[in-house]
Amino acid sequence: MDPLTSTADNPGTARTPGTADPAPGAAEVPSLQVSGLAYAYPDGHQALFGVDLTVPRGQRVALLGPNGAGKTTLVLHLNGILTPGAGSVTVAGLKAGRPHLAEIRRRVGIVFQDPDDQLFMPTVREDVAFGPAAAGLRGAELEARVHEALERVGMAEHADRAPHHLSFGQRRRVAVATVLAGRPEILVLDEPSSNLDPAARRELADLILSLELTVLMVTHDLPYALELCPRSVVLSDGVLVADGPTQELLSDVELMRAHRLELPFGFDPRSVTVPVA
Ligand SMILES: Nc1ncnc2c1ncn2[C@@H]1O[C@H](COP(=O)(O)OP(=O)(O)OP(=O)(O)O)[C@@H](O)[C@H]1O
Ligand SMILES: [Mg+2]
Fold first, then answer.
1. Count of beta carbons in the 10 Å neighbourhood of residue 261
2. pTM recorded for the entire structure
3. Distance 43 CA to ligand 1 centre (A)
4. 223 CA distance to ligand 1 centroid (A)?
Protein backbone atom coordinates (compact mmCIF):
# COMPACT_ATOMS: atom_id res chain seq x y z
CA MET A 1 0.00 0.00 0.00
CA ASP A 2 1.36 3.43 -0.91
CA PRO A 3 1.36 5.41 2.33
CA LEU A 4 1.15 8.69 0.44
CA THR A 5 -2.20 7.92 -1.16
CA SER A 6 -3.85 5.58 1.31
CA THR A 7 -6.63 6.63 3.67
CA ALA A 8 -5.65 8.48 6.83
CA ASP A 9 -5.83 5.98 9.65
CA ASN A 10 -3.69 7.77 12.15
CA PRO A 11 -5.13 11.23 12.60
CA GLY A 12 -3.08 13.67 14.61
CA THR A 13 -2.68 17.36 15.15
CA ALA A 14 -1.05 19.17 12.25
CA ARG A 15 2.27 20.61 13.35
CA THR A 16 5.06 22.46 11.69
CA PRO A 17 7.96 20.23 10.62
CA GLY A 18 10.89 20.75 12.91
CA THR A 19 8.74 21.44 15.94
CA ALA A 20 9.48 18.90 18.65
CA ASP A 21 6.59 16.98 20.18
CA PRO A 22 6.22 17.95 23.80
CA ALA A 23 6.76 14.90 26.00
CA PRO A 24 5.37 14.64 29.52
CA GLY A 25 7.72 16.34 31.97
CA ALA A 26 10.00 17.34 29.09
CA ALA A 27 10.55 20.88 30.37
CA GLU A 28 12.68 19.64 33.29
CA VAL A 29 14.44 16.87 31.41
CA PRO A 30 17.41 17.73 29.16
CA SER A 31 17.04 16.79 25.50
CA LEU A 32 20.32 14.93 25.69
CA GLN A 33 22.34 13.48 28.52
CA VAL A 34 25.52 11.56 27.72
CA SER A 35 27.20 10.09 30.80
CA GLY A 36 30.60 8.38 30.97
CA LEU A 37 30.32 7.24 27.36
CA ALA A 38 33.18 5.03 26.26
CA TYR A 39 33.40 3.06 23.05
CA ALA A 40 35.93 0.84 21.28
CA TYR A 41 35.34 -0.35 17.70
CA PRO A 42 35.40 -4.11 17.13
CA ASP A 43 39.01 -3.89 15.88
CA GLY A 44 39.95 -2.64 19.35
CA HIS A 45 40.40 1.03 18.44
CA GLN A 46 39.03 3.07 21.34
CA ALA A 47 37.29 6.18 19.98
CA LEU A 48 35.57 7.58 23.10
CA PHE A 49 36.83 7.73 26.69
CA GLY A 50 34.16 8.64 29.24
CA VAL A 51 32.33 11.51 27.53
CA ASP A 52 29.86 13.56 29.62
CA LEU A 53 27.56 16.02 27.85
CA THR A 54 24.21 17.49 28.84
CA VAL A 55 22.19 19.59 26.40
CA PRO A 56 19.12 21.37 27.77
CA ARG A 57 16.01 21.52 25.64
CA GLY A 58 16.17 24.18 22.91
CA GLN A 59 19.92 24.77 23.18
CA ARG A 60 22.15 24.71 20.09
CA VAL A 61 25.59 23.21 20.70
CA ALA A 62 28.49 22.86 18.28
CA LEU A 63 30.63 19.73 18.60
CA LEU A 64 34.12 20.69 17.45
CA GLY A 65 37.33 18.73 17.15
CA PRO A 66 39.97 17.58 14.68
CA ASN A 67 39.63 14.68 12.24
CA GLY A 68 39.46 11.38 14.08
CA ALA A 69 38.47 12.97 17.40
CA GLY A 70 35.38 10.75 17.78
CA LYS A 71 32.65 13.22 16.80
CA THR A 72 30.84 10.91 14.37
CA THR A 73 31.31 8.00 16.78
CA LEU A 74 29.54 10.06 19.45
CA VAL A 75 26.75 10.97 17.01
CA LEU A 76 26.22 7.31 16.11
CA HIS A 77 25.47 6.59 19.78
CA LEU A 78 22.71 9.18 19.96
CA ASN A 79 20.12 7.07 18.17
CA GLY A 80 21.44 3.65 19.05
CA ILE A 81 23.37 2.86 15.85
CA LEU A 82 26.31 2.15 18.16
CA THR A 83 25.87 0.74 21.66
CA PRO A 84 28.04 2.19 24.44
CA GLY A 85 30.89 0.06 25.72
CA ALA A 86 30.40 1.90 29.02
CA GLY A 87 28.17 4.75 30.15
CA SER A 88 24.81 5.81 28.77
CA VAL A 89 22.91 8.08 26.42
CA THR A 90 19.53 9.46 27.49
CA VAL A 91 17.25 11.37 25.14
CA ALA A 92 14.45 13.40 26.73
CA GLY A 93 14.58 11.06 29.72
CA LEU A 94 14.58 7.85 27.65
CA LYS A 95 17.68 5.70 27.85
CA ALA A 96 18.99 4.74 24.41
CA GLY A 97 18.91 0.99 24.02
CA ARG A 98 16.75 -1.91 22.97
CA PRO A 99 13.41 -1.26 24.71
CA HIS A 100 13.20 2.35 23.47
CA LEU A 101 15.05 2.11 20.19
CA ALA A 102 12.15 3.06 17.89
CA GLU A 103 11.14 6.00 20.07
CA ILE A 104 14.76 7.17 20.42
CA ARG A 105 15.14 7.08 16.63
CA ARG A 106 12.00 9.15 16.27
CA ARG A 107 13.27 11.72 18.75
CA VAL A 108 16.83 12.00 17.48
CA GLY A 109 16.96 13.19 13.90
CA ILE A 110 20.46 12.73 12.49
CA VAL A 111 21.54 14.38 9.26
CA PHE A 112 24.57 12.31 8.33
CA GLN A 113 27.86 13.60 6.96
CA ASP A 114 27.02 12.06 3.56
CA PRO A 115 23.41 12.56 2.36
CA ASP A 116 23.72 9.39 0.27
CA ASP A 117 23.73 7.46 3.55
CA GLN A 118 20.10 8.43 4.13
CA LEU A 119 18.51 8.74 0.69
CA PHE A 120 17.57 5.38 -0.77
CA MET A 121 14.06 5.65 -2.25
CA PRO A 122 13.23 6.20 -5.96
CA THR A 123 11.90 9.73 -5.38
CA VAL A 124 12.53 12.62 -3.02
CA ARG A 125 8.89 12.47 -1.90
CA GLU A 126 9.18 8.82 -0.89
CA ASP A 127 12.43 9.42 0.96
CA VAL A 128 10.86 12.22 3.02
CA ALA A 129 7.70 10.15 3.60
CA PHE A 130 9.63 7.11 4.77
CA GLY A 131 10.06 7.99 8.46
CA PRO A 132 6.57 9.42 9.10
CA ALA A 133 5.00 6.50 7.17
CA ALA A 134 6.94 4.04 9.31
CA ALA A 135 5.56 5.90 12.34
CA GLY A 136 2.01 5.30 11.05
CA LEU A 137 1.10 8.46 9.15
CA ARG A 138 -1.01 7.93 6.04
CA GLY A 139 -2.84 9.73 3.25
CA ALA A 140 -3.43 13.48 3.29
CA GLU A 141 -1.72 13.94 6.64
CA LEU A 142 1.43 12.24 5.41
CA GLU A 143 1.32 14.18 2.17
CA ALA A 144 1.05 17.47 4.09
CA ARG A 145 3.92 16.48 6.37
CA VAL A 146 6.16 15.70 3.38
CA HIS A 147 5.22 18.89 1.57
CA GLU A 148 5.87 21.05 4.64
CA ALA A 149 9.29 19.48 5.22
CA LEU A 150 10.28 19.95 1.57
CA GLU A 151 8.98 23.54 1.57
CA ARG A 152 11.05 24.20 4.66
CA VAL A 153 14.26 23.25 2.86
CA GLY A 154 13.25 24.83 -0.46
CA MET A 155 12.95 21.51 -2.30
CA ALA A 156 9.18 21.14 -2.80
CA GLU A 157 9.43 21.54 -6.56
CA HIS A 158 11.83 18.57 -6.72
CA ALA A 159 9.52 16.13 -4.89
CA ASP A 160 9.13 13.77 -7.84
CA ARG A 161 12.79 13.66 -8.86
CA ALA A 162 15.18 10.84 -8.11
CA PRO A 163 17.54 11.79 -5.26
CA HIS A 164 20.55 10.52 -7.24
CA HIS A 165 19.77 13.04 -10.00
CA LEU A 166 20.12 15.97 -7.58
CA SER A 167 23.25 17.94 -6.84
CA PHE A 168 25.10 17.30 -3.58
CA GLY A 169 23.71 20.47 -1.98
CA GLN A 170 20.19 19.55 -3.03
CA ARG A 171 20.64 16.04 -1.60
CA ARG A 172 21.83 17.57 1.68
CA ARG A 173 18.63 19.64 1.83
CA VAL A 174 16.48 16.59 1.15
CA ALA A 175 18.36 14.72 3.88
CA VAL A 176 17.47 17.56 6.27
CA ALA A 177 13.83 17.32 5.13
CA THR A 178 13.73 13.56 5.81
CA VAL A 179 14.77 14.31 9.38
CA LEU A 180 12.45 17.30 9.91
CA ALA A 181 9.49 15.28 8.63
CA GLY A 182 9.91 13.03 11.67
CA ARG A 183 9.53 16.03 14.04
CA PRO A 184 12.49 15.15 16.22
CA GLU A 185 13.21 16.30 19.77
CA ILE A 186 16.82 16.92 18.85
CA LEU A 187 18.38 17.66 15.48
CA VAL A 188 21.91 16.32 15.05
CA LEU A 189 23.87 17.53 12.03
CA ASP A 190 27.23 16.03 11.09
CA GLU A 191 29.15 18.67 9.13
CA PRO A 192 26.06 20.26 7.57
CA SER A 193 27.83 23.08 5.72
CA SER A 194 30.43 20.91 3.97
CA ASN A 195 30.22 21.07 0.16
CA LEU A 196 27.48 23.71 0.17
CA ASP A 197 27.86 26.85 -1.90
CA PRO A 198 27.77 30.10 0.12
CA ALA A 199 24.09 30.76 -0.59
CA ALA A 200 23.05 27.21 0.34
CA ARG A 201 25.20 27.44 3.48
CA ARG A 202 23.42 30.67 4.43
CA GLU A 203 19.97 29.21 3.69
CA LEU A 204 20.70 26.19 5.87
CA ALA A 205 21.80 28.52 8.68
CA ASP A 206 18.54 30.47 8.36
CA LEU A 207 16.60 27.22 8.47
CA ILE A 208 18.41 25.95 11.58
CA LEU A 209 17.86 29.29 13.34
CA SER A 210 14.14 29.17 12.51
CA LEU A 211 13.54 25.72 14.00
CA GLU A 212 13.49 26.26 17.78
CA LEU A 213 14.82 22.73 18.22
CA THR A 214 17.60 21.34 20.34
CA VAL A 215 20.56 21.12 17.97
CA LEU A 216 23.89 19.33 18.17
CA MET A 217 26.00 20.32 15.21
CA VAL A 218 29.31 18.68 14.36
CA THR A 219 31.36 21.08 12.30
CA HIS A 220 34.80 22.11 11.13
CA ASP A 221 33.24 25.38 9.92
CA LEU A 222 34.05 27.51 12.96
CA PRO A 223 32.32 30.73 11.81
CA TYR A 224 29.20 28.59 11.28
CA ALA A 225 29.49 27.28 14.85
CA LEU A 226 29.86 30.85 16.10
CA GLU A 227 26.83 32.04 14.18
CA LEU A 228 24.50 29.19 15.06
CA CYS A 229 25.59 27.80 18.41
CA PRO A 230 26.00 29.92 21.53
CA ARG A 231 27.73 26.95 23.19
CA SER A 232 30.46 24.66 21.88
CA VAL A 233 32.24 21.58 23.14
CA VAL A 234 35.59 20.33 21.88
CA LEU A 235 36.25 16.61 21.50
CA SER A 236 39.86 15.57 21.05
CA ASP A 237 41.20 12.00 20.99
CA GLY A 238 37.89 10.77 22.38
CA VAL A 239 37.87 13.14 25.36
CA LEU A 240 35.77 16.29 25.86
CA VAL A 241 38.44 18.90 26.54
CA ALA A 242 36.41 22.12 26.53
CA ASP A 243 32.82 23.26 27.00
CA GLY A 244 31.77 26.91 26.98
CA PRO A 245 30.49 29.88 25.02
CA THR A 246 31.56 29.44 21.39
CA GLN A 247 33.06 32.91 21.19
CA GLU A 248 35.28 32.25 24.23
CA LEU A 249 36.47 28.88 22.96
CA LEU A 250 37.27 30.19 19.49
CA SER A 251 39.18 33.11 21.04
CA ASP A 252 41.33 30.77 23.15
CA VAL A 253 44.46 30.58 21.02
CA GLU A 254 46.14 27.89 23.15
CA LEU A 255 43.07 25.64 23.14
CA MET A 256 42.63 26.04 19.42
CA ARG A 257 46.25 25.27 18.66
CA ALA A 258 46.34 22.27 21.01
CA HIS A 259 43.43 20.62 19.21
CA ARG A 260 44.14 21.45 15.56
CA LEU A 261 41.30 23.96 15.33
CA GLU A 262 42.01 26.78 12.89
CA LEU A 263 39.99 29.84 12.06
CA PRO A 264 39.76 30.99 8.43
CA PHE A 265 42.35 33.57 7.39
CA GLY A 266 41.51 37.00 8.79
CA PHE A 267 38.53 35.80 10.86
CA ASP A 268 38.43 37.29 14.37
CA PRO A 269 35.73 35.65 16.53
CA ARG A 270 35.86 38.56 19.01
CA SER A 271 34.78 41.03 16.35
CA VAL A 272 31.47 39.22 15.74
CA THR A 273 28.28 39.97 17.65
CA VAL A 274 26.78 36.61 18.64
CA PRO A 275 23.71 35.40 20.54
CA VAL A 276 24.30 34.71 24.24
CA ALA A 277 24.42 31.10 25.49
N1 LIG B 1 34.50 1.35 11.87
C2 LIG B 1 35.61 1.70 12.52
N3 LIG B 1 36.46 0.77 12.97
C4 LIG B 1 37.59 1.12 13.64
N5 LIG B 1 37.91 2.39 13.95
C6 LIG B 1 37.08 3.36 13.53
C7 LIG B 1 35.89 3.08 12.80
N8 LIG B 1 35.27 4.24 12.52
C9 LIG B 1 36.04 5.21 13.05
N10 LIG B 1 37.13 4.68 13.66
C11 LIG B 1 38.18 5.40 14.36
O12 LIG B 1 37.62 6.05 15.48
C13 LIG B 1 38.20 7.36 15.66
C14 LIG B 1 37.09 8.39 15.66
O15 LIG B 1 36.52 8.44 14.35
P16 LIG B 1 35.32 9.40 14.00
O17 LIG B 1 34.84 9.06 12.64
O18 LIG B 1 34.34 9.35 15.12
O19 LIG B 1 36.07 10.81 14.00
P20 LIG B 1 35.50 12.26 13.65
O21 LIG B 1 35.81 13.14 14.83
O22 LIG B 1 34.10 12.17 13.20
O23 LIG B 1 36.46 12.69 12.45
P24 LIG B 1 36.16 13.57 11.11
O25 LIG B 1 36.33 15.01 11.52
O26 LIG B 1 37.30 13.14 10.20
O27 LIG B 1 34.82 13.21 10.57
C28 LIG B 1 39.22 7.53 14.54
O29 LIG B 1 40.50 7.26 15.05
C30 LIG B 1 38.81 6.50 13.51
O31 LIG B 1 39.92 6.03 12.80
MG1 LIG C 1 33.11 12.58 11.36
1. 21
2. 0.89
3. 12
4. 24
